[in-house]
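Methods — Computational structure assignment.
A single polypeptide chain was analysed. Its primary sequence is given first, followed by the predicted tertiary structure written as structure tokens.
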Amino acid sequence: MYDLIGDIHGHADELVQLLHVLGYENHHGIYRHPERKVIFLGDFIDRGAQIRQVLEIVRPMVESGSALAVMGNHELNALAYHTEDPDAPGEYLRRHTPNNYQQHRVTMEQLSPAELASYLTWFRTLPIWLEFDGLRAVHACWDEQSMALIEPFVRPSGPLTNDFLHSACKREGELFDPVEIVLKGKEAALPKGFFFRDRYGQIRANMRVRWYLAPDHHTYQSYALSDDIQCNMPIDGALRETASPYPRDAKPVFVGHYWLSADRPRVLADNVACLDFSVAQGGFLCAYRWQGEQKLNDAHFVWTR
């Protein structure tokens, strides 16, 4: 069975505490459980003060077989930030703008160049999603249509190539939109005149949506995966027509990414759980102790304070 853990973002103390609560013990530098494995949902880096320590815990667990992991958007961003753009000499797939630099700065400050290079090589080996007999894991959104477009370009047992990164990280690339959906979630434009400021102070006119639900009978505010949207207008026809809700009879899927804010975790739907409760912004690190159930249970969440 599996213990799924959400976005860590350089918070090693909380990770160690959570692993201990879950019954994992450190044996010769690797946290292990006699009967269970962890599935990490990505976003190990950026923001926190213990990025090296987090990677020193997670990578050995994965490489020893005591854990599995999927890629988060911050790992993909890091790869793009350090991969040269073949179409623009001297530039990188993720431009070194002040905003992009600021998001990635603490990772570069905490890792030596050799360490960073090693972890970037490891990031390339992380799968973009995982699926087993009873559950699914992905960083942001399980979307069959997007995954069908990505799958032919991903080697089952090989690292991501520069060609893949080039297609996935440039807006004109064939894989840009499907990878954005899977690793960053689905977005929808707010009605004209509505906007909000994100946690970086940037003005946004698009909102992250509850992709696992049908938008019928929802307003923009109730369909947003954010507390920042103040728009009670009904969802319009275009968004209703393009939505593809997660089937209610599909395997349970676990995601991170969404910076949820709550006193305690709760499932998003009977077969959908988010495990990102904003540990990097005063929230808590969260896990779900999966016992094989197909209807998820709030009682199976475990978290730190």
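Note: The longest helix spans residues 51-64.
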